[in-house]
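Quick check before the chapter quiz. The format below is the same one you will see on the exam, so make sure you can read both the input and the output lines.
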Amino acid sequence: MKEFETQQGGVPTGDVELNAALKRGIQKFDVLNSWLHENEIHFSDLHIEEGNEVAVRTSRGYGPFSVLFEGMSYPDILTEKWEKLDFIGLISQYRSSLLSGSGLVGDSLSFPSAQRVLFERIQEGGGALDFPIATEKARYRVNMYYYGGRQKLGIAARRLNTEVPAFDSLSLPEPLKHVCTKQKGLVLVTGPTGSGKSTTLAAMLDFINANQNKHIISIEDPIEYVHHSKKSVMTQREVGVDADSFESGVVAAMRQDPDVILVGEIRDRETAEAALSAANTGHLVFSTLHTNSAEMTCNRIMGFFTSDDENRILDLLSSNLLCTTAQVLAPRADGEGKVMICELMLQNDEVRSDIFSRNFKGLENAILSGKDMGMMLLNAQLEEFVHRGVITRDTALSLTTNEADMRFRLSAE
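Here is the expected output.
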């Protein structure tokens, strides 16, 4: 870890001057939030890097603030370049625990110490650090990182929706409602980053919460949608705050009398094992993976385990996997936002047999033959949305996982 000079880059040394400089970062972020909300800008992400102005991803596009909002009236502070002190000030306001022991959270102030502690926290995270930030205007899932030879700081902040979406408002496949009534099993919502997995899960949990008397425990990193108990009792726990990890959170949840468990993401063998075990012992378990099809999902689960575990895990997976969705968010042809399109696989004898025999390639045919149950292939859905004029042919081709099949389907129209 490289050390930094106390006065490099014009860093103030006096307490009063330092306090004022730290508040500048807080002010930049708060003014940015207020301006975006007051002007009803539909944005999803903020990208802030040292030495640059803020970049924003909105429904109208992506770019530096001054480029994206050219011609609009805004305070000059919104196009100021961010300095290292701005980041430290922001963290001291919204996530002060990350600076514990630095002197910024205590009786004295020390910029070099705060900087060192923050960079050490990022290094402990493998070069990046995930945490939530909650302001008066919005909640964010933040990834803070260093770059440029570990000399500069950057933040990617994903805006989190605060209103839990109703199931029917998302046009989710109707069979998912039936999945939500099951007493036990594993439900995997999959897709790339930004495909709406958290939103789908929030809607499914809200459907259970509104219609059933259950104890629902979620283990999330971070908590995105904040649920309030309705007919069910909701217990939301955050990794790094309420639980050390997804795996330890699931293990603890098993001793808390749950009916439904949400595991934010399956990232490793331990979490996969815990999720499968919870489903196998009579709980309805929801989780996510970054996969694009039922075949890829089953391969990913098996990839967490060694060959010695193969037969045991195939037995657990074939018996307990109730449903997989592999979803994408497609830009609408009319430019009015995006629409969710997905592959849907549901449990039946053919699916169970294919998984148990590790014939994952056979799952596509199982989905085709399960159309009457409500199963659907992604390409079939993309084709339908093109036919209805909801998305363009180019969009369908960019989102398919089987381009040759997609081109054949579209050429037949």
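If your answer matched, good. The chain has a mean pLDDT of 88.
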